[in-house]
Write a structure and sequence with these properties.
The protein contains ten helices and no strands. It is an all-alpha fold and 262 residues long. The longest helix has 28 residues. The protein starts with a helix and ends with a helix.
Amino acid sequence: MTPDILTALTGGLVGIVLGLVGGGGSVIAVPLLLYVVGMTSVHQALGTSAVAVSLSALGNLSVAARRGIVKWPCALVFSAAGIAGSIAGAHLALQIPGAKILALFGGLMLVIGTLMLVRKNAEGDPDVRLTLNTVRPMAPWLLATGLAVGLLAGFFGIGGGFLIVPGLMLATGMTITSAIATSLVGIVAFGATTASTYALAGEVDWHKVMLFVAGGAAGSVLGQLAGTRLSHRKSVLQAVFAAFVIAIGTFTIYQGLPKVAQ
């Protein structure tokens, strides 16, 4: 297959994953771009992934916003701190050899895959609001967790949804449903910030971005249809995908470590 077809199919696979399990697709985008599509630059794969993730999340955010389930004040405070972290993380990553980032990225995949296996749909307070009465206890947590997650998202060129969701729940005590919807603001913000940094450095393949996003849109539709039919087995699907993420993370470390040692 040609690189263009592989790019579109890769985007489709990520879209299917998003439709089936509701998140995590972005973390496999970089390894797929490197090992399936054949991109040779780790930095360019990170930049290209960041653009695609941001555009995909923007579409999902518009749906969540129309449903009125996004907690905007919490999202904006969290994202403001995260944008600063994303800028710092992306600039730091551009100074580090791609092989070292690849090995670290594999380690991150192992952590995310493990979190996916152990994460429970913890209950929270559906009425959480960031107001003048709650800003003092909530704002420091939102700023601290936003900065930390943004730093990781910028460094690794990912949306960071699986980090943002628990971060929001920890900072505010909101329900996981609210956190997933609210996290889309952060994913768009962090992805766009990271993408801008990489684009200015010339590390974005815009042709592949368009193919990836087009494939992702089609894959999301298929994934949502399949997800509806398999909704009673969503926990099984998430466990299988978590194992897949861990396997790819292990392979990525295996590929990256020898180059680090050189």
